[in-house]
Design a protein that fits this description.
3-stranded antiparallel β-sheet, 15 helices
C-alpha cells in the first residue's frame, strides 16, 4: 500500500492576535485602570564564554505580543486599551556580526500592537503613566521583573500570571492552526524516521533525521528528542540517545516540532524491522493501543481527565492479567493496591500550547510522582475541572518495564510483589516500554485528533517500504 505524504498548508496563519490576548488577560484583572508590564527574554552568553546561550522567548510575553525577538518588553494600558511594544535600538557596529532586529516601522507592520517604541523610551513612558494614574496597579509576573529604579504605589506580582494562565487554557483559531501545523511537521519527521530506521545503527541517527526534517520545514524542537531503544524506553525522559540499535526490539520515539512557539507532543513506538519482533512486544503494544483508543473515544466537553486516566489503568490491568504479568488478585484488588503504577507510572496527558506541558489555572488532573500506594485522586470530585471546548490536550498512555523502578518500589514491596508474576516478567524486560501519544483538540461535540503521524500497522508498512529506498525529505 502507498502511504500518502502529509501536505503542509501555507494558508490560514497570519498576524498573531496579540491585542486580543492582552484584552482577554486584562478582563481577568481587578484594576480597570492598571498597567500590565511584560518582560521579554534577553539574550545572554554562557558563563565565562563569549558563546551565546540558546535563546527562547518567554512564553507569557509572547502570548501578549507575538514577538519572537530578544531584548523586548511590552506594556498594556488597560483603561486606554493601548498595547505598546518596546524594541532594542539597532547598533550599527553589531549588525555585521549579529544581523539586526526589526525597525520601528517593520515592527508596526509585523505585530498586532498599537505602538512601537525603542527600549530607551520606556522609563519616560512609565513616569508619565504614574503621574496620570497615581493609585492604579502596576502588574508584573514576578518581583524581579519590575523595571530597575521605578517605584509604583501599587505593584501586583501575583494576579497577572494567574490571569494569563486562565486565558492560555482555551486556544483561539490562530493558536489551534499553529499547533496543527506543528503536528503536520512532526508527522513528516516521524515518517522520515520510519522510512530509514531499518538501516540505522544508533539512537543518535534517529534524533538526527528527526531534527533534520523539522529544521528543513522551518520548525524547532518542542523539547529534546527522546529516542529510546530497548530497555531505555523504561526511562520516561531518556535523553542520551547514543546507544546502538542492534538487538533492540522497540524504539520509543517521543519527539515533536514547534511552530511559531506553539508545540506538538507526539510519541510513537515501533520495531526496527517492519514486523513485530516478539509476541511479548506485540501484546504490550496492543494493550497500550487499546488504552489510547478507548480514552480518545471518551473525549468531549464535560468529561474529567482523571476519569479517563483511571479507565486507562483498568484496561492496563486487564491486559497484564491476561498476559500473566499480573496475577493472584482481581482487577479491583490490583487497582486498589496501585500496583499498575509500576507499569504505567505517569498521568494520561496534559495541556499543550506555548509549552509542551502548558499552563493551566486548575490542574485537569493531579497525579503524585512519589506515592505508589494508591491510584485515588487527592481531589474531591468537584475540584476536578472538566474538559472544555478549545482545550488542546495529549492522550499518552504507556506500559513500561523499568528494572530499577519495579525492583525499587514494587518487587520489594509485600503490597505489590504478590500481584506481579516475576517468572513471566522476565520475558518482558526486553520490550522496554511502549507509549503512544496524540494531540487532541476538544470540540463542541467531541474532539479532533491533530496528530496525523502513522502508528501501529500503518507505521510498520512505512518501515517495510523504506527498507527498499533511501532517505529523502519529500516536499
Amino acid at each position: 500500500m502507498r502511504i500518502r505524504n502529509i501536505e503542509l498548508r501555507a494558508e490560514g496563519i497570519n498576524k498573531y492576535p496579540a491585542k486580543q490576548h492582552a484584552q482577554a488577560v486584562a478582563s481577568k484583572l481587578t484594576d480597570p485602570d492598571g498597567l500590565i508590564y511584560l518582560l521579554g527574554q534577553y539574550a545572554f552568553t554562557i558563563e565565562d564564554s563569549d558563546q551565546a546561550k540558546t535563546w527562547r522567548q518567554r512564553r507569557y510575553f509572547y502570548y501578549c505580543s507575538g514577538v519572537d525577538v530578544p531584548n523586548c518588553c511590552l506594556t498594556y494600558d488597560i483603561s486606554a486599551d493601548e498595547l505598546s511594544l518596546y524594541i532594542p535600538e539597532i547598533k550599527p557596529e553589531r549588525v555585521l556580526w549579529e544581523g539586526r532586529g526589526p525597525t520601528i516601522e517593520e515592527a508596526e507592520d509585523r505585530y498586532d500592537v498599537d505602538s512601537v517604541y525603542l527600549n530607551g523610551q520606556l522609563f519616560d513612558h512609565l513616569d508619565q503613566w504614574k503621574k496620570g494614574n497615581p493609585e492604579s496597579t502596576f502588574y508584573v509576573l514576578h518581583k524581579d521583573h519590575r523595571p530597575v529604579g521605578e517605584n509604583f504605589s501599587k505593584v501586583d506580582c501575583e494576579k497577572l500570571k494567574y490571569a494569563i494562565d486562565c486565558c492560555r487554557v482555551i486556544k483561539d483559531d490562530y493558536e489551534i492552526e499553529c499547533i496543527r501545523r506543528a503536528n503536520e511537521i512532526s508527522a513528516v519527521a516521524h515518517q522520515a524516521v520510519l522510512r530509514n530506521v531499518g538501516r540505522f545503527r544508533s539512537e543518535a541517527q534517529i534524533q538526527g533525521i528527526f531534527e533534520d526534517a523539522c529544521i528543513s520545514k522551518g520548525a524547532k524542537q518542542s523539547y529534546p528528542v527522546i529516542a529510546a531503544s530497548g530497555e531505555n524506553a523504561g526511562t520516561l525522559h531518556y535523553a542520551k540517545n547514543n546507544e546502538p540499535l542492534k538487538g533492540r526490539q522497540f524504539v520509543c520515539l517521543d519527539a515533536g516540532a514547534e511552530f511559531r512557539c506553539y508545540t506538538s507532543d507526539v510519541t510513537r513506538t515501533f520495531p526496527i524491522s517492519g514486523s513485530w519482533p516478539s509476541h511479548e512486544a506485540k501484546n504490550i503494544y496492543g494493550i497500550v493501543q487499546m488504552m489510547q483508543e478507548h480514552c480518545i473515544e471518551g473525549l468531549h466537553p464535560g468529561v474529567k481527565m482523571y476519569d479517563l486516566h483511571i479507565l486507562a489503568h483498568k484496561i492496563a490491568i486487564a491486559g497484564l492479567l491476561a498476559l500473566g504479568i499480573l496475577h493472584n488478585g482481581t482487577e479491583a484488588e490490583i487497582f486498589e493496591a496501585g500496583t499498575s503504577r509500576g507499569f504505567y507510572p505517569h498521568g494520561l496527558g496534559h495541556h499543550l500550547g506555548l509549552e509542551t506541558h502548558d499552563v493551566l489555572d486548575i490542574p485537569i488532573m493531579h497525579y503524585s510522582m512519589n506515592d505508589t500506594s494508591a491510584l485515588v485522586t487527592p481531589f474531591k470530585d468537584d475540584d476536578q475541572p472538566p474538559l472544555e471546548e478549545g482545550m488542546v490536550i495529549t492522550i499518552e498512555p504507556g506500559i513500561y518495564f523499568s528494572r530499577y523502578e519495579l525492583n525499587r518500589a514494587y518487587l520489594s514491596s509485600p503490597i505489590h510483589s504478590k500481584y506481579i508474576n516475576q517468572t513471566v516478567l522476565e520475558d518482558y524486560w526486553a520490550v522496554g516500554g511502549v507509549r503512544i501519544e496524540d494531540d487532541l483538540l476538544i470540540t463542541a461535540d467531541g474532539y479532533e485528533n491533530l496528530t496525523k503521524t502513522p502508528k501501529g500497522e500503518a507505521a510498520l508498512e512505512i518501515i517495510r517500504q523504506g527498507s527498499h529506498g533511501s532517505y529523502r525529505l519529500e516536499e
